[in-house]
Protein 1
Amino acid sequence: MRLKTFPGGIHPHDEKHYSKAAPITNFPTPNRVIIHLSQHIGAPSTPIVAVGDTVLKGQLIAEPSGFVSLNQHASISGKVTKIGKFMHPTGALAMGIEITSDGMDQMVELVDDENFMSLPVESIKERIAAAGISGMGGAGFPTHVKLSPPADKPIDVAILNGVECEPYLTSDHRLMLEHAQKVIDGLKIIMKVTGARKGMIGIEANKPDAIDLMHKLCSKEKNLEVVGLKMQYPQGAEKQLIFAATGRKVPAGGLPMAVGVVVQNVGTALAIYEATRYRKPLIDRVISITGSVVKKPMNILAPIGTLYSDLVEFCEGTTAPVGKAISGGPMMGFALPSLNAAMTKGSSGLVLFDEKEAKSMAEHTCLRCARCVDICPMNLMPSLIASSVKYHDLDSAVEAGLNDCIKCGSCAYVCPARIRLVQWIDTGKLRYAEAQRNK
């Protein structure tokens, strides 16, 4: 298989050896969970339960507060004990619903609709929306919205993102190995809903077993193709994946639908399959708990809202003091002040570094070496954008492509001056958003 890729990018050590061979393990019912009301892009969900209410596992506890919003469900059975602010995986405080387990783990009744592929498109969309599914690869866009492009943006290609290019993370890899057919069935549902005639599964070359298995299962399907991709970060970013797989270039400021493509994560495809066939809400997901200080790195199927501290304890704790905890991967994840945060639908991993690995390096003056320009997958000048933000020249930052930056972190990774390019660009995005609100 000829490996494909995109221009630019970097080659960080993937560090997947910690957990890639660890099979998916079911997490026992936690004592409590915190269901955040913001687990997605868009408006936070609105609670429909009150403190003291008894809920079943899978029961609806919060509804969408707008078109781009989500249903939220209880991931364990028990009692609602608090509605308030809790630590979010981004490190900030955010509204959520705390449920304390009753030890019964009672689930709402599900069905097995064996003829799920014969359902009308609108019925499938309704089931996906009812299940509260959002993108599980990181961005968290509500899936029912993403699968409803406007009539003037027809979709002819659906791509499953099995790249998992972030170092350390292996949850998608294990999903493809252990639930391959369900993932493929999810892709077929996506194709039916969007009208796509072609389905593709993009997988990076460091997962040859997943490539082989998926290729074997798709080989008899004329409209399905497995695309092997070079190890090149950020290969899993939507625009880079689309270019590598199809040769189509999404215009600046545009969405994949602009070139007739929809992209979904492999975990999202599995959730779509379960929602369509069983009407199962998105109440659990696979998450990688990994890093050099984790005693037993694992890939865990855990209820949404499980505390990171409980997951680390399930991995038998750590072998040394934790120097840094990162929710997500080390390139695009969020550093946490503690492990008291609860995982969300978009939580693909938790990476723990020791104190030496977490050492912060001093920022120096830009050397004008242009390494950040050479590797930028969006063809931007990160150093120019960052310096414009630093000196409060927001107009110049926007003109240089501030809003096109995908915050992949490649520029900061190669910068010999250790300039915090991503943080400066992110600051610029926040300032720009505030300026737009104040207009």
Protein 2
Amino acid sequence: MQNYLKNVKFDENGLIPAIIHDLKGNVLMLGYMNDESLKKTIETGRVHFWSRSRKKLWLKGESSGHFQEVKEIFLDCDGDTLLIQINQNVASCHEGYYSCFWRKLKNENWEISEKKIFDPQKVYK
């Protein structure tokens, strides 16, 4: 076992949440990692996740080319959440927004708070 893994507390499904934060100060997304995706992230310098819906490892940006280049990885005080600081290539959201958090609650309604920066239909053919 790699030395760094002994401090990481994966849940009962073998997963740990990973908050993705860019160097500009934006929280871009939340994904889940297992030990294999964390190892791949460290080895390659690009963020890898475990897809809970597809039940497989995936490299963020493998379809779009919008990779997340790792700058630093932090583990919280309880050992059960990762914070990964990255440089984002183009956008993190598959719906065309820079961040996955593009809806903002205002007067009991969700409003779009960002402009789309790419057309998903052109990127995900």
Protein 3
Amino acid sequence: MQIYFSLIALTLYLIGAAFSPQRKGLVLSLCACAFVAHGLALGFGVFAPHALRIGFAVMLSAAVWVAILVYIVENRNFSLDSLRILLLPQAALFSVLPLFFPGRLISLEGKTLMFPWHVGVALLAYSSLMIAALHALVMVFQDKSLHRSRVQSLPLWLDKALNRLPALLKMEQILFSMVALGFVLLSLTVLSGVIFSEQFLGVPFKFDHKTLLSLLSWLLFGVLLLGRYWRGWRGKSVLRMTLFGFTSLLLAYVGSRFVLEVLLHRSIS
């Protein structure tokens, strides 16, 4: 079933990416159907009898799946057609990526009922912050477009895409909403993983590179939010901090899994 739903999502994402921006209602309907198919594919891929299947491809696919949901919701209030051009082809690719890199099964035997919830919250935290990083990257190009000189020029397709985005101030508000959501979810993940690891999750705590990088990412996003609400931080420093915080999280999870699963052909817990 995972294969069928993945191929359905792939097809619908590509069709949605090919439509003109004037067909907004149809595009959103296609995205919604693709979102459901993508979610079902993830469900069949991750959940197995008495086990969970986790890998770098699953994490990337789940992140893009959440990004599609944000796109559908936010597109009701703002014109985000330029994000459609950037997002849907990536969603098509990542919807089938777990078929080629399925990851490994993590047995639930001996683990408490909290363990699947911990994994689910961690995936949602990573997904939310990946969306924030992608959003920040788009804002970097948007800012450069606004401040470029007359003699400088961007590719026509990129210039048109950036011009259809909401104002930078509104884009920044959306960014901090996503960062705040991701920070709350990441806090729950770190709290359960560091403090209650063996007691509630049934696995021993390991102070390794994943823990260090996760804590660094959590600290960066926490400082970013405090600076925003107490000192009114905004602008390029905010974008750089968002991208650096997500890079740390990326190296903590997806990076290590990719190296071990794909390059070294080893499995990790």
Protein 4
Amino acid sequence: MSRLVYVLNGPNLNLLGKRQPHIYGHETLADIERDCRALAEDLNLELRFHQSNREYELIDWIHEARETAGGIVINPAAFTHTSVAILDALNTFDAPVIEIHISNVHKREEFRHHSFVSGRADGVIAGFGTQGYQLALRRVAFLMDTKAA
């Protein structure tokens, strides 16, 4: 099985460190990618790390992952609450999917409590800040290893 994991990030996550630091912290997406790559090396994973403000690009990467990847970690950001299209794309992916959110979405506005993506995710990590990405990578690696055994 492929040790490739796609780490996909949705809209506005390119502004991490600048946008609402009281909610999302001061780390940038580049900081998160650096930490993910260091952990991936320890876990013997290869990463494709992407961010887009465009729904169709996230869908295209999910389709691409169908052919090459052993897992997906996705922070769909605002698309979490709106995108049936991303859910449909993830439903075509036959390997572990971990949904991640930097903030605890359940302590925020009511509309953030519903996730379309959770309907497909093998696990959801929310409220652990940017450290949630590392937790997600550890979990997806564990699920990949379990499936391969």
